[in-house]
Amino acid sequence: MVNKVLNITPCAWPYCKKEGRFSAPCDPRNLRKRIILCDEHIITYNKSWNGLDGFTAEEIFNMQENPAWDKPTWKLGEKQKLQEEIFNFTHGSDKSFKGYDFFSDDMPIDHVRKNLKMPKEVQEAMDILETYEPLEMVTVKKAYKKKVKENHPDRTKNKLQAEENLKQINLAYHKLKNYLKIKI
């Protein structure tokens, strides 16, 4: 019920004429069913609200048993892989068209660059990150993360060499990232 003259929703508390600004659930079994209360009455209502009111002990136990509440869940990283595959497929990088398996990250060893117009610094950056054409941000990021993990100073014995490699990897990543921004 909205006051059409003032265009406000009144508080649902009995005999209250203030503007209702806060939404609160009114049924523990249907949390989408809401009432609108003013600032004074929302405090009183929240103090007395019992979200488990009307549930049996068995129903409460079943809610605790399933912490995901029947929502779909994924193992860590699975959803991201699926999204990357969908992105690659919908944005024209379906590897099966180029002779690669769609779900495999394997590249042929004898891969030859076809784009001779590509700047030399970009080709060198691709060599450092071991990426191949078609050059896409998703593959560049994957290669960058892989190289950073391999050459992290905490994972190698020669820390000075690892730091130098890390600098080259970062520089190569930024060159490729900038090249892709300009290209698009």
What does this structure look like?
With 184 residues, the chain is mainly alpha-helical. 44% of the residues lie in helices and 4% in strands. The protein folds into 2 domains: 1-71, no CATH class; 107-183, DnaJ domain (Helix Hairpins), CATH 1.10.287.110. The protein has helices spanning 39-48, 57-65, 78-90, 120-129, 137-150, 159-183; strands spanning 22-25, 34-37. Strand 1 and strand 2 (34-37) form a beta hairpin. Mean pLDDT is 78; it is low at 94-100.
- Helical residue percent band: 40-55%
Share of residues in strands: under 5%
Overall average pLDDT: 78
Total strands: the figure is 2
Spatial order of strands in the largest sheet: 1-2
Gap from first CA to last CA = 52 Å
Please outline the helices and strands.
Elements: E1 22-25, E2 34-37, H1 39-48, H2 57-65, H3 78-90, H4 120-129, H5 137-150, H6 159-183
Antiparallel strand pairs: 1-2
Helix pairs in contact: 4-6, 5-6
Keywords:
184 residues, mainly alpha, Helix Hairpins, 2 domains, two-stranded antiparallel ribbon, 6 helices, elongated
Summarize the structure.
The protein is mainly α. It has helices spanning about 40-50, 55-65, 80-90, 120-130, 135-150, 160-184, and strands at about 20-25, 35.
